[in-house]
Write a structure and sequence with these properties.
This protein has 284 residues and is mainly beta. The two termini are 35 Å apart. The chain is 4% helix and 42% strand. The chain folds into two domains: 2-139 and 262-267, Bulb-type lectin domain (Agglutinin, subunit A, Orthogonal Prism); 157-257, Bulb-type lectin domain (Agglutinin, subunit A). The strands form five sheets. Strands 2-11-12-23-22-13 form a six-stranded antiparallel sheet, with no helix packed on it. It is elongated, with a radius of gyration of 20 Å.
Length: 284
Amino acid sequence: MADHHIHHLLPLILALILLILPSSSHASNQTDGLFSEPYDFLVSGNNLTDGNQTLSLQPDCGLYYYVNGTLVKNFQTNTDSTGCILTINYFGQLVLDKGDGTQPQTLGTAGALGFYALLLTDDLLGVYGPRTWSNGILRSRTLKNKNLKQATSNNFIYSDNSIDGVANGNATIATNEGVTAYITQKCTLSVKNSAGIIWESTPSINGSYVCYLWLTNRGPLLLQYEDSKGLQTQWTGGVLGEKNKYVAVLRSYGGIDIYGLKDGILDIPPVTAAVAKNIKMVTA
């Protein structure tokens, strides 16, 4: 996990971000996921938002959680700074850095070393991780592919939920910036973009079977179908873990990740030493 060394470069990174991005663009940007690998960040003046939930990072580094436009939690992180970035580290903690060499503000307790994500799921904003499984597809570590303004995800299935395929074609289950995940008529899970197939599960079968993709509450992602002998498991992704809320995520470069919930956003305590002020929500 060599990327953890990038935290030492935050002052330079933040200065470059604030120079590159005009202030007028900050409020209009929205994203729904923040990942520790390969190092995503949210710039002050932007929101993490999906549906009725919004995590707002203000220009003064104030971090606020809203539901239906109503303030639910003030993390009391606001400072005299006029710019900062929000990241999530390899221990599942939220990190606010002003980029001026001072000690970053850290929110939440440290978990096991691993890859984490701050995700807006169907009903809960929270820190998920460490990652329990990946299909092995990695994002290219280039400036072009490290979107400075947002990190997107598509949370396509949650634990104890299932998605049905079709017997005579491909069933799309998620899309993310030109990347599509789908259940094929061969009962495989496949990811493709305009250039072709990025990744596909094995094995495949022939026949008119309706396949089901199911994420269990113990972590594994199962691709199953029924025949004359009953329910058959065609493919399994992931490892067996403790009962929890899990989510499978499609990344914009073709990766599929599975995470278990670490902390709900309301379980993360605020920075008690800060003084709350200026809690006007950033809106698009």
